[in-house]
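Fold this complex.
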Amino acid sequence: MILGKVVGTIVSSTINDGIKGSRYLLVEKTDQYGKKLGDYLVALDIIGVANDELVMVTEGSPSRETPETVSKPVDALIVGIVDLIDENETVVYSK
Amino acid sequence: MILGKVVGTIVSSTINDGIKGSRYLLVEKTDQYGKKLGDYLVALDIIGVANDELVMVTEGSPSRETPETVSKPVDALIVGIVDLIDENETVVYSK
Amino acid sequence: MILGKVVGTIVSSTINDGIKGSRYLLVEKTDQYGKKLGDYLVALDIIGVANDELVMVTEGSPSRETPETVSKPVDALIVGIVDLIDENETVVYSK
Amino acid sequence: MILGKVVGTIVSSTINDGIKGSRYLLVEKTDQYGKKLGDYLVALDIIGVANDELVMVTEGSPSRETPETVSKPVDALIVGIVDLIDENETVVYSK
Amino acid sequence: MILGKVVGTIVSSTINDGIKGSRYLLVEKTDQYGKKLGDYLVALDIIGVANDELVMVTEGSPSRETPETVSKPVDALIVGIVDLIDENETVVYSK
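Structure:
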């Protein structure tokens, strides 16, 4: 999984994903300190994430392994909002 | 998913993909502002995209998760035409 | 899918792929003009491609989605020989 | 598989992975000598790894091929703690 | 598939792969001439490869498509030992 911050929304009325009311977010990758890295991807949000929240994103086939995404053409999924990250016993990120 | 603009068509009469009348497009990756990045891929189009439209592309195995592409050797699929992108509450791309 | 030109053959008598008479080709990636990029991969050929032909290659799991490759350990498959590529309404490659 | 050292923990109370008590670790990639490379990923730990241990990480779909991760949206899994690495008949890493 | 030379062994007594007696090798990627490129990965060996042999490695999900690796968390598999490579009708590598 990778870390990223939600920075925007992609609207596509023609989306052919078979998911009712799917919501695609623009995610900017970050390091473990929440610092943005200037590298972006589009990920499906099924948990309701707010702008600027730090999230974990699953990429590739495993994105399909939730009840909402099974057998859907989705290759990036936000799986959780990060509360806290520690590195070498020190808290380096806190929500 | 990644963002890209359709810039061309690939014609292959010998294509061995098992998809009747499959249409492969040359897609140039873009950023969220629709700016082309000089990086290209070939993606299957099953929704009917016109030249220069901004699209969302799914890569890898999830490309097979539509009725048209199930069990087909396709690793990149155009899943939707982008209408609008907002970044930090500002519209940065509009069709 | 990516574009590439066939530049050679890989012979492996011990190949453990379960495909009878499998033929692996050395493919050099190209841009949409057929210009070689100095980046190589090994792909399975099941359609009979000649040296220097421009081909489309599927990567990853979707490579297994043909009758010949189903349930086989193949991660790159030549799916078609390219006849023609147009970019912005201009033919940029022709066989 | 890739090699990496465990350097931290990611806490996400909202994680939507369907795995009870899942534990995600921050892993810094290393070379075969255990030297850290400054490149990080988040991987699921189901074997109980301690901080600074050198581990093998499986990426992508195969991460789901354990009883704990089957049909789960996990794209990186710690599969083992490395005891020893030899390179050209010389031990280059030992736990 | 990619080309690489076997340069070492990874020993992990705690490996959680469900494969009895699995053997993981350190593989250094090479070009088609067998020249080492300084880029490494860890791959499962089920055919019995010796040190310094040039091999073909399958990556990702297709690694699971052998009787020994089916439903196992393996993302890189040595599928064959290379006997010969020709490029543009010239033999550029021979075992």
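Chain D has a mean pLDDT of 96.
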